[in-house]
Structure formats: structure tokens, C-alpha cells
Amino acid sequence: MYKIVLMRHGESQWNLENRFTGWVDVDLTEKGRKEAALAGQLLKKQGFVFDLCYTSVLKRAIRTLCIALDELDQLYLPVIKDWRLNERHYGALQGLNKKETAEKFGNEQVMIWRRSYDVPPPALSKESPMWPANQSRYRLEDPELMPLTECLKDTVKRVVPYWENEIVPKIREGKQILITAHGNSLRALIKHLDNISDADIVGLNIPTGTPLVYELDENMKPIKSYYLGDQEAIKNAMAAVAAQGKAGK
Ligand code: DG2
Predict the structure, then answer these.
(1) Where in the sequence numbering do the catalytic residues fall?
(2) Mind telling me which residues the site (Transition state stabilizer) is annotated on (predicted)?
(3) Residue 181 forms beta bridges with which residues?
(4) 56, 107, 131, 226: which sits with the fewest CB atoms below 10 Å from its CB?
(5) At 224, which helix (H) or strand (E)?
(6) Average per-residue pLDDT in the chain?
(7) 115 is in an annotated binding site
């Protein structure tokens, strides 16, 4: 049996401001840093000792990992950062307030943009400074691979091959792995792991800064999965994520 830990970053500044973030590189809030530290303490209490970590190239996930590793006293670990674990690219919605967007376009449209499997948000133009191909950190990447927008299906197309080709071989070598990433890049991975249908993935919401343990069999099929921490608070945090794109109070 193998065991891995997945974790969404702690609360970011734009999570707090309820803005669509995607590939915009916003940092953690004070609360987000505390969530990351608490996650590290929970992992420590459970005796987790990791060998290798993966994260995105976005600072909210990288910093969450550093803070958690500091609590674990495992800052020595190798960390692989890859854009394939980045958040789903939110296209032209990036920067907009989710509630205001719902007031303008309706709850249903925002729900489709946030959670439908295969309807992408409006795309950026290639002139936009938000197109990753226009940003220095992605300058060595093939511009054709740099998204102008993404639906979850598009995110699955980059996350799952990365999982299969890069991470699974390391798990098979016996390495204990910690992955810190994002709400939707983790939804993409969990959809694959748990074989969740395109329709049912709509209902999956991931709380910030909460370790999610997966126990996997030799075929990488989940035996069980569970969040560490206060289960009632986790349920409430998931419901709060679901409600972020609604108009009104
Ligand atoms: C959020 C997810 O990503 O938003 O891009 O706004 O995990 O990096 O904070 P994260 C964003 P929703 O899809 O839940 O609206």
C-alpha cells in the first residue's frame, strides 16, 4: 500500500477578496499562513515523514509547502515545481470578484464557469499580459501549451499525464510524497484517482490548507482517503468554497 498527501494552499489574498485567481501569482494571507502551519503540525502529529514534494510555480502553493515543511522540520526535502500543477487558468475572469460576476451574469452562468467540466471561461487574447506565454517565468515553455483559458477537462489533460509520468514512478520507488497545489488542479487529480464522473465532479469542493491523505493500492487505486483535522470545520469550509460564486449576501 502507498500513501500520499494532497493539500490545497492556505487562504490567498484573492481567496479572501473572493476574486478569480487562476494563474495570477497572489500570496497567502495571514490566515493562509496559519492554515499551512496547522497543516504541518497535523502531519507531524501523525508521524508523516516525506521524501519528495511537488508543487506548482505559484507562490501560494509554494509558500504553503515551505511553511508546512518548516513545522515538520523537513525543509531539507527536494521540491519539484511544475506549471502542470498550477491552478486551472481562469481566462478573462482572472481578477474579477466572484460575487459581482454572479450579480452581472447570474449564479447559473458563474456556476458553469466555476464547476462545469467542459465549458471554459471566456478566453484571454494573446496580447494580454495575463497570457502565461507573455510572462518571463514561462519563457522556456512551448507557447502552444500556455492556456488562454481552461475548463476542468483542460486541466485534467495536463495534471493527469504529469501524475502518471512524473509522480507515480516516484511513488512506486517507495517515496513518500506531499503535493501542494490548488482547488481545481487537485479536483482534476481527484477526479482521476476516484474515477468521478464528469457530472459528479461539479459537487467536489476542496478547503484551503487541509491535508488530504490517500491510501493507494499497487494499481494506484484509492483504498481510502481522508482529511486530517476537525471534520465539522472541514465540512463547513467545503460548503463555503461552493458558495463563493453566488450573488447576494
Ligand atoms: C481558486 C479556485 O483557485 O476558485 O483560481 O480562484 O485554489 O488557487 O485558490 P485557488 C481560483 P474556484 O474554482 O473555487 O472558484
Answers:
(1) 9, 87
(2) 182
(3) 8
(4) 226
(5) strand 222-227
(6) 97
(7) yes
The answer to whether the annotation marks 184 as part of a ligand binding site is yes
- Shortest-distance atom of ligand 1 to CA 208: 7
* CA within 13 Å, CB half, 216: 22
22 is in an annotated binding site: yes
**Ligand 1 atom nearest to CA at 20:** 6
Tell me the ipTM for this assembly: 0.96
**Integer Cα distance of 170 and 162 in angstroms:** 12
Which one-letter amino acid corresponds to residue 209?
G
CA of 54 to the centre of ligand 1 (A): 19
Tens-digit pLDDT profile for residues 163-220: 999 999 999 999 999 999 999 999 999 999 999 999 999 999 999 999 999 999 999 9
CA distance 70 to 202: 34
pLDDT tens digits, 38-67: 999 999 999 999 999 999 999 999 999 999
